[in-house]
Amino acid sequence: MDTIASFFSFITTPVSWVIVQFHSVYGTIFGPDTGWAWGLSIVSLVVLIRICLIPLFVKQIKATRAMQTLQPEMKKIQERYKNDKQRQSEEMMKLYKESGTNPLSSCLPILAQSPFFFALYHVLNAIATGKTIGVINESLLASARNAHIFGAPLAAKFTDSADKVASLNASITDVRVVTAVMIVLMSASQFYTQRQLMTKNVDTTVKTPFMQQQKMLMYVFPVMFAVFGINFPVGVLVYWLTTNVWTMGQQMYVIHNNPTPGSKAQAAYLERLHKHVTHHGKARNRRERAIVKAIVAKGRDRNEFERKFVNGLNKAGLAAQADGSVVKSEGAASVQAADGTATTATATETAPRRQQPKRQTKAQRQSGTAKPAGETTPSTSLSKSDQPQDDEPAAAGQASAKSGNSTRSRAQSGQRKGPQRPKSPSKK
């Protein structure tokens, strides 16, 4: 580790200068020789570095999204050239070049932060050995060696001997307890950050080897931190624990407000956005309009969560526009197309059609027993109780006459129904 840190010795002077400036501020509040003054100086260094790395973090997010978009194409290439690794690598590089993505872009924040990490390690190691470094002179060196965090000196390690710890005015028990707790917290924060990324912010519709690699790293990184952490000074553990907590909070903010399409986080975000838009009747700010605009622009390529969001707006009487705005659709109804996209139709287009009368058979038309739909005849007949009893024989005769007429009309229509007259025998 000392050899690696020596490669970054060119940045030790700027890092030591920043720590001294923060120490001069916190020293006036907590005292120059306290662990709070030096510990908060290291924490402030982390915050300053991570603020400067925010542009790289945004680039990392874009690169990760681009890689996730290419996952289906990468899977096709792997299946097509699964027996030819060289051709598979060539096609992968060609795909990266055509899409303008770089797999190493997701590692930019870690790579950019590495020089500061090793420079801080170099500074704290010099303090532990009693050597001046950068802008840290003799007086600042003595103050830093006397600074303790929960009884552990900033320059002490888990693997230090009892004599070396005693030279820093501390006990070996305090040093090992504090360093062990910080190593556990550092590994747990790293594991939670990676697990949060894999369970909430990954497109679950695509299963690729890239996801398997991420799951493996979720368990490998905490183990690596635990192994290397026993050789880190307490000040470096403070630096790395602060970095993990910052990364965890930054990632939680991104997952909550800008989730990956197709992930569980996007489903939760669109559900919250649907409640807000339907409550206010419009997209409230630029970020919401950008999300709605991106969903509308996808058309048939929307995933199930995005289709559910658009359909929910239509059911609420709202329509998403191409510019990202949401307007009320007066008298509009949601019409679901065959491709899953929702369109809006006016009330005249969605009104029920007039029902056409049923087609009658030829016998019904000739007998006149059935009337067209919607056509009524005035009722002039008396009820059975109102008719005089003397008219019953006449009514019976009329009924028989009507039945005879209907029988003759059916006979004339060519339908042979009922008993037929036997043919007379031919005369010889």
What does it look like?
It is a single chain. The chain has 428 residues and is mainly α. Helix content is 62%, strand content 4%. Strands 1-2 form a two-stranded antiparallel ribbon. Strands 3-4 form a two-stranded antiparallel ribbon. β5 (333-336) and β6 (342-345) form a beta hairpin. α10 (172-200) packs parallel to α12 and α13 runs parallel beside α15. The longest helix is centred in the middle third of the chain and has 29 residues, at 172-200. The chain starts with a helix and ends in a 16-residue tail after the last helix.
Summarize the structure.
By secondary structure, the protein is mostly helical. It has helices at 2-7, 12-30, 35-52, 54-69, 71-80, 85-99, 108-128, 138-146, 162-167, 172-200, 209-229, 234-257, 264-280, 286-298, 304-315, 347-350, 362-367, 392-412, and strands at 148-149, 152-153, 318-320, 326-328, 333-336, 342-345.
